[in-house]
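Form 12-C: Joint structure prediction
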Amino acid sequence: MTLHPIVGDRTNGGRPLFSIITALCLMIMYAPALYLLLASLNPDEQLGLVAPTRYSLNWYVALLDDHRLFRALEESTVVALATAAVATPIGLAAALAYRAMTRMRSIFLLVILSTMLVPGTIEGLGLSVILRLVGLSPSWVTVALGHLLWTLPFAIVVSLIGLSAVRPSTVAAARDLGAGPTRAFVDVTLPLIRGNLVSSFVFAFLLSLNEYARAYYLVGRQNTLPLYMFGAMNSGASPTIYAFSGAVLLVSFAAVALIFVIAARRQSGPPGVSLGAYPTHV
Amino acid sequence: MPDKVAGRRRRAAFFLALPSLVVFISIGFVPLALVAIWSFWSFDPETYWIKPVWSLASYTALLKNGRAAVLLQTAGLAALTATVSTLLAVPAATVIGLLSGPRRATLLVALFTIPFFTSGLVRAFAWRLVLGREGVINNVLISLGVVHTPVEWLLFSDFAVVLGMVAAHLPLAIVPIVLAFARIEGSVIRASQDLGAGFWTMFSSIVLPLIMPGVVAGFLFVFVVAIGTSMEIQLLGGAGASSIAIMINDVMRVVNFPLAFAIATVVAILLIVVIIVADRALELSRLFEDRGA
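Section 2 - Result
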């Protein structure tokens, strides 16, 4: 059910006004990134837009010689894969636990929320000191530990949203037909939330890939991608910076957009499966 | 029997929660608690570490060298960012929750959420190309003859920082309001129409009070996250611009551990209090209730 048909078209200027503000919001979120992408196709040393006929991938080709960039990318990929691979199952387990909880629910949610919102600098600082104390020297493992803490709340929320869209009657039906709780979970619930688990993995991967504040404190000798990029951005503007910024943007946009497309497809498919990211009903 | 089932359910919940609790406690809580305790220890110049001599020195140092000013300045910028974000988020969420059909609502939610998962660093950096001396805005203003020399305050200024932070954190303000819209019953809106209310009366006296918990939650989310960010300030702020996170990094560079711990403790405690109060007031846990059979 949506409220849209009830409101109708007579909004006394409300609809155009609100639509303009929405467009403005989207503009400030997308326009700079789009401009950067187009500017990265400029073959000249000088920054700015050129006519589409002069677009070139020169600076992207030049990236291939940047070995430090590739080592940073490799490090970040390892960290992000490890983080997502651990965060997704733990997040699912935590979401299942959350739903089975009664009185502990609100406290558990508070723990999830505060972990999500404590500044990365503070989490990174605290963790780096502890890890040094227990003798774990900085490496991709320490960064992944910090990123596990950063991504786990998101993994839990995505799993929770998936689980809240599974109709209890579907699971009850399986139980009535003699399936035990584990069997019902594996055969009924799990297939229904598969899309959310994929979203959970991809979101955790991307959040880790782009994380800066925690990695700053936890990184070993090899920089992660955002740390390397931050250094490059502040040390004079070589046009390759725009190219790898553009590449990073494209990859993350493509990955998330794909998740949303798949989620939307599934939503119009089997009943009881909701959009990967947000519930239409809560 | 019911006791036995409830007991088994509780045990299952405990074991399922265990891995995440281990992460939250050992990686999240324990480091913060130790940092809080160690902030009362003293710096040891011999080991460049700390020694267990209790002292309030780092908390008095917190108030010196303009550090209190940085704390207030960061809070001020975060409050401004949260205010602007909320003012933009209410109309945007209204378009999603009240004025769009399901397809467009889904598309808009996707559009507002996608950037959150892309590189914040790159998106902040991109503002440099737009706002700089030779950026898009200055080029347009000059070619239109509005100004003759580039407008300097667009970049490396508080204006650029707030703009960059609003663009980065807007989803955090919009999503809670969209969730609040999903809880509004169509019947209350229909009732207001039956009683002759126009759009604006309905919006201000029915819709706004009902979405207020989402509005407040969104404001607080943006505020809390903006307090902790350093990226926008480092990439877009002026020469002397600082923030809490930058200050912690700077203090750590001179290995003044107790002072860095003290700053971190004060900020973390303030933010956790804000989150607890918001959670109590807004019953955020209701966001994930079941949709029913």
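Section 3 - Comments
Chain A touches chain B through 112 residues (CB under 8 Å). Chain A has 13 helices and no strands.
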